[in-house]
Amino acid sequence: MIAVPTTSGTASEVTTASVLTDTERGVKALLGSDDLYPVYALVDPQLSMSCPPQVTAASGFDVIAHALEAYYGKKHQPLTDLAAERAAALAFDALLTAYREPNNREARAKMSEASVTAGFAFGQTQTAAAHACSYPLTQDFGIVHGEACAFTLPSFWRLNSEEGAEAERLQAFSRRLGFASSNALADQMDAMKKEMQLCTTLAEAGILEEDLDQLVSKSFAPNMQNNPVPITKARLKAIYLHLK
């Protein structure tokens, strides 16, 4: 298989991961196999220049989610840390420019590199809580994958930066990326989401408070266990309520 990506986001061209969606039963599940690993990946940033702004925004936030979750996930290791940090730095630098200026070659090239590099990282570490939450957000509420990941990503970044085994690492990571603190990095994600018109509240996502119990129950995919701070149903519901 030869993979030629036309977005900067999934990194499917350098991973063994895919997603299987059963629309009849309303199931979205991960599918992983060495047979899905492409023999060649032809990554040409110019092919992403025709992406509509919202595709650029959503797929770009998928890159950021891959990078951050690879960095703080329980399965991280020194080599994946290097790739994840490089990918995050590129994406924070280039995503807004790519969104504002679709034909900016430098920004598109940086996002292409970020996507592939993040793929190298999360292909080894897997993803974590934001991705676990994204599946029912997409399946039940029609929120596209990258936007669904972005919906809770700042919340989990703040949580993991404030408590748990990775807190000090995430503070240092944020400073190396040029942010005053991990909260400042999360604030930047929130600001980027607002500018790129990605949902930031339950209302914008079309989620009612009475939907939360079922949403929470369906969010515990296996990668939820990769989060460094244990996530319970009560804690996850509180995270969602904070997004009202």
TrEMBL record:
Domain Fe-containing alcohol dehydrogenase-like C-terminal intervals: 56-240
Keywords from the UniProt entry: Oxidoreductase
Keyword Amino-acid biosynthesis: no
EC number, UniProt record: 1.1.1.1
Coiled coil: none
GO molecular function: alcohol dehydrogenase (NAD+) activity; metal ion binding
UniProt cross-references to InterPro entries, sorted A to Z: ADH_Fe/GldA, ADH_Fe_C, ADH_Fe_CS, Alcohol_dehydrogenase_Fe
Enzyme class: oxidoreductase
Pfam families in UniProt: ADH_Fe_C, Fe-ADH
Domain Alcohol dehydrogenase iron-type/glycerol dehydrogenase GldA: 1-45
Protein name in UniProt: Alcohol dehydrogenase
Species this chain originates from: Sporolactobacillus inulinus
Lineage: Bacteria, Bacillati, Bacillota, Bacilli, Bacillales
